[in-house]
Design a protein that fits this description.
The protein is an alpha+beta fold. The chain has helices spanning 15-19, 23-32, 47-54, 60-74, 84-99, 114-122, 135-139; strands spanning 6-13, 36-40, 105-112. The protein has a three-stranded antiparallel sheet.
């Protein structure tokens, strides 16, 4: 019988995770909770690849821009623009530079409640506020600032 909430989700080990030799540790954390690795490869993405990946959702730039503006304001920093699309474009430009700086490892993981489980294990998207015990909380040294 297939679990009613069996899901697949994408996880990407980004260039810094590869450079810092964290591949095995990251994979181990997802395996340890019972997720199954069903696809893996190593690639060096192109600018077009990164842009298409992040903008599959037509509202991505607007949503990311709004979140970034709120994050700037919460920290008492003036955002580079008050237009969410402009800020989203800046975020995308930074992501393109980062994601094309070296190889990445996209992986597909499968299991019961995989999306929710992966989010818990991975940690929040702002590295400095990610909980200790999550991948980002334990290994990410940088922040959005």
């Amino acid at each position: 019988m297939i679990h009613p909430k069996k899901e697949k989700t994408l996880i990407i080990i980004k260039p810094d995770g590869i450079q810092r030799t964290l591949i095995g540790e990251i994979i181990k954390r997802y395996e340890r909770v019972g997720l199954k690795l069903v696809g893996i490869k190593i690639i060096v993405p192109t600018k077009d690849f990164v842009e298409k990946h992040y903008t599959i959702d037509p509202n991505w730039k607007k949503n990311v821009g709004e979140k970034a503006i709120l994050a700037y304001e919460k920290k008492g920093i003036k955002p580079p623009s008050n237009n969410p699309i402009d800020v989203g474009n800046r975020v995308l430009a930074s992501l393109v530079v980062y994601m094309t700086s070296g190889p990445i490892i996209p992986m597909v993981w499968e299991g019961a409640h995989a999306v929710e489980v992966v989010r818990k294990i991975t940690g929040g998207t702002e590295p400095r506020t990610s909980d200790v015990g999550t991948i980002r909380g334990d290994f990410v040294l940088d922040s959005y600032i």
